[in-house]
Design brief:
The chain is mostly helical and 138 residues long. The protein has one domain (5-134). The chain contains 8 helices and 2 strands, in the order αβααβααααα. The protein has helices at residues 5-10, 28-31, 37-43, 57-61, 66-73, 78-81, 92-104, 117-134, and strands at residues 18-22, 50-54. The relative contact order is 0.14.
């Protein structure tokens, strides 16, 4: 891990704390992935569409398009980095982890170039499968 769990879960200040990041910013492109603006507002809080970013990184990415947010995500905690193609370059540890994960479930980590509702659902399933493995739930 590149960030201590205690720090991530207890620090909330603007400079050193962590804040929730919505992958789906409020912009026309993202709203277009949903059936209407109400659906967007209700579903953008899905666990598969949320990240935790340090300090002002969340605010600095603002309402950027997803492709631009990836520049911030590659510097964030690992869950954010897994969205980025460069995370997988010369990273044998993630390749090994993915092989083991595939043996235990139907999911794996991979970069996501366009984040839409299907991507959100896949990220939710990935998190669900990871939690089942960690907590040894059938």
């Amino acid at each position: 891990m590149n960030v201590d769990v205690r720090q991530m879960s207890t620090k909330h200040g603007a400079k050193t704390g962590f804040q929730i990041e919505h992958i789906f910013s409020r912009n026309d492109e993202n709203v277009g992935y949903f059936k209407d603006p109400n659906d967007f507002e209700n579903r953008r809080n899905n666990i598969g569409a949320l990240l935790v970013l340090k300090g002002n990184e969340n605010i600095s990415s603002g309402n950027e398009k997803y492709i631009d947010k990836l520049k911030t995500y590659i510097k964030g905690p690992i869950w954010a980095q897994t969205l980025c193609k460069d995370f997988y370059h010369a990273n044998p540890a993630i390749n090994t982890f993915n092989e083991e994960l595939k043996k235990k479930s139907s999911v794996s980590f991979h970069s996501i170039e366009t984040f839409d509702t299907e991507s959100m659902e896949k990220r939710s399933l990935l998190l669900y499968e990871l939690v089942k493995i960690i907590w040894e739930i059938d």
